[in-house]
Amino acid sequence: VILIVGMIIIYRQVGFVQNKNLGFDRENLVYFPIEGELFKKFDLLKEKLGQVAGVKHVSHMTATPASNGNGTEGITWPGSDPNAQVRFTPVGVGYDFTKTMNLKMAGGRDFSKNFPTDSSGVIVNKTAVKVMGFKDPVGHEINWGKSKIHIVGVLKDFHYQSLHTAIRPLIAYLGAREPQGSVVVRIQAGKTPETLAAMERICQKLNPNVPFTYAFTDQEEARQYQSEQGVGKLA
């Protein structure tokens, strides 16, 4: 009886991990590192990728789409406790970030080239709003170290880390293409082979000295839960 009950619990846990709604669409989401010449040629890269029939959206992040363990405690806001050490997860993103990740907005808007002031704007998640205690956060000014920034949008919470980790306050800022960052591409379902081949040709032309390597977000997610899958098989 103990073995049967344990097996049922394990299989339910594995099923929960595999079917849990992460708050973003992990299917058909490809990413590859910003290496070599791609760092300087990102705008041209985005333009060329956008011309590929199977590519829907292109953006970039300073971390991989489903894994960001960085943190900062330099965020303060009017009424915040100066002695409190609230740890926010920062991530630099590009335009079309929310569309590429298929994230849901809870208020405000995404970053836009139509608003030059977005260079000092941020998008936060609902967990961050709860921490800050804002009822209507859009437009509020907060402090990041010695810099004043303002909130332009609020995202519904999504799991950007493993399900083993509770969702932390997230703060997304515009720009910050970094060599260790990732180009994120949303491709059309059913056109994966030809789309990847076209992406490889573009990257090889713009970045001939670096091999084109990529990964799918859903595969990365699966690797995060190999231990649960192994225990399930063992059971």
Keywords:
7 helices, flat
Write the layout of secondary structure elements.
Elements: H1 2-19, E1 29-33, H2 42-50, E2 55-61, E3 75-76, E4 89-93, H3 97-101, E5 105-108, E6 121-125, H4 126-132, E7 141-144, E8 147-155, E9 170-174, E10 182-187, H5 192-206, E11 215-216, H6 217-224, H7 226-234
Parallel strand pairs: 4-9, 6-8
Antiparallel strand pairs: 1-10, 1-11, 2-10, 3-7, 5-8, 6-9, 7-8
Mean residue pLDDT: 83
What is the alpha-carbon Rg in Å? 20 Å
Quaternary organisation of the protein chains: single chain
Structural class: alpha+beta
Helix/strand order, N-terminal first: HEHEEEHEEHEEEEHEHH
Approximately how much helix is present in the residues?
Answer: 25-40%
The largest β sheet comes out as: 7 strands, mixed
Gross morphology is flat
Number of strands: 11
Q: How many helices does DSSP assign?
A: 7
Strand content: 15-25%
**Span from first to last CA?**
13 Å
Give the low-confidence spans: none
